[in-house]
Design brief:
- The chain has 14 helices and nine strands.
- The chain has helices spanning 5-12, 24-38, 58-70, 85-97, 111-117, 155-172, 174-182, 184-188, 192-212, 227-236, 243-260, 268-278, 291-304, 334-342; strands spanning 17-23, 44-49, 77-83, 104-108, 122-127, 130-137, 142-143, 314-316, 319-320.
- Strands 2-1-3-4-7 form a five-stranded parallel beta sheet, sandwiched between helices. It has a two-stranded antiparallel sheet with strand order 5-6.
- Helix 6 (155-172) packs across helix 9 and helix 10 packs across helix 13 (291-304).
- The model has no long low-confidence stretch (mean pLDDT 94).
- The structure holds nicotinamide-adenine-dinucleotide and zinc ion (ZN).
């Protein structure tokens, strides 16, 4: 697909000028070649930021939008985010705000970005208060997934991406869950056919959920399974934990929470633990993170949400529980939250 990128763009996202937003790793791996194929500056310009979650910030947003203005990019430009979820979230936020919004194309190159972050239109940046606290809903015109780029991804990022696939399966499809567990080795070995199938199955689930509830008024929240605890782990570890790793641990904690609230089937945490472990993902929090710190981070999250922390809880693998008030997330008493933390200590 990447070889056909110029033709795909001409058909789906024609533009006078293209801005490629990428990070310092993906820059020489893929972005430079794509830029060359699209044509020289000024037709196509590459804007590169330092790889890593720390760049998903208002600071980088400011630097790149200034560079784009300096380069004279007008409203007839299209932004291409080429890279992992950081390039996608940041590039999408830039596209949605630059000159009040220019069209946007996602070219995800990490497994996490392919199966999760490039689909659904959530963009944004982190702040010192937490993740994704400033952002927009802004749909890409087209998402171009070329799974061959996964061959250069690190093993750790392949595993972290696979955590989001476990999440998709856990909330929507127990057959898919079993398929992932029995294909764990092939996933870790990057068997391209298995990875392609994983991408297709996950994108189908994600796009179905998002199409029903684009701006998360209701059921889209089921995609946050594992993420209330996961975001707290990720933020309080100061991003030592990758997003997918934090979500893996978060899913286990939230399954335990569901059991203690009498909502989740009792065997579910063990089933999740085994799927997570088969993908060589962590099942416990880093030893330097105290339950208090985690709790405080979740506490803050609540200000950004509904006045209190809410959790997506499973009934069982493949099915999410709807709360009595009709919401797809649940409240939980503080004691139950601490009890859930004890299972990931
Ligand atoms: N918008 C959403 O709906 C959504 C959903 C899930 C996650 N996210 C966000 O996604 C981010 C995590 O994404 P990520 O794990 O892709 O992080 P990332 O963008 O930092 O990419 C991970 C690492 O892999 C490198 N990389 C990417 N593609 C590569 C390739 N093909 N070959 C070699 N190296 C490659 C990157 O340079 C980086 O070092 C988080 O910020 C998270 O909040 C967003
Ligand atoms: Zn996620």
């Amino acid at each position: 697909l990447l070889r056909r990128l110029p033709a795909i763009l001409e058909q789906h996202a024609p533009a006078h000028r293209y801005a490629i937003i990428t990070d310092s790793n993906v820059d020489h791996l893929y972005a430079r070649d794509l830029a060359a194929a699209l044509g020289a500056v000024p037709h196509c310009t590459v804007f590169t930021f330092e790889a890593g979650e720390a760049s998903k910030s208002r600071r980088t947003w400011g630097i790149i939008t200034d560079q784009m203005l300096d380069a004279g990019l007008g409203r007839d430009s299209v932004v291409l985010a080429v890279g992992g979820g950081v390039a996608g979230d940041l590039g999408g936020f830039i596209a949605s705000t630059y000159l009040r919004g220019v069209p946007f194309v996602q070219v995800p190159t990490s497994l996490l970005a392919m199966i999760d972050s490039s689909v659904g239109g959530k963009t944004g940046v982190d702040t010192s208060r937490g993740k994704n606290l400033v952002g927009t809903f802004y749909q890409p015109t087209v998402v171009i997934i070329d799974a061959s780029t996964l061959k250069t991804l690190t093993d750790r990022h392949v595993r972290a991406g696979a955590a989001e696939a476990v999440k998709h399966a856990a909330i929507a499809d127990s057959d898919y869950f079993n398929w992932i567990e029995s294909n764990s080795e092939a996933i870790l070995d990057r068997d391209i056919d298995v990875l392609l199938e994983l991408v297709i199955k996950s994108v189908n689930i994600k796009s179905r959920v998002v199409s029903d509830d684009e701006t998360e008024q209701g059921k889209r929240a089921i995609l946050n399974f594992g993420h209330t605890v996961g975001h707290a782990l990720e933020t309080s570890s100061r991003y030592d934990l990758l997003h997918g790793e934090a979500v893996a641990i978060g899913m286990i904690a939230e399954a335990e929470l569901g059991v203690s609230l009498g909502i989740t089937e009792e065997s579910t945490p063990a089933t999740l633990r085994s799927a997570v472990a088969a993908l060589q993902l962590p099942v416990k929090r880093p030893s330097n993170l105290s339950p208090q710190v985690l709790h405080e981070t979740i506490e803050f999250d609540k200000k950004a949400r509904y006045g209190e922390p809410r959790f997506t809880l499973l009934e069982q693998i493949g099915r999410v529980s709807q709360a009595p008030d009709g919401h797809w997330t649940h409240r939980a008493p503080e004691a139950a939250i601490f009890e859930a933390f004890s299972h990931i200590m």
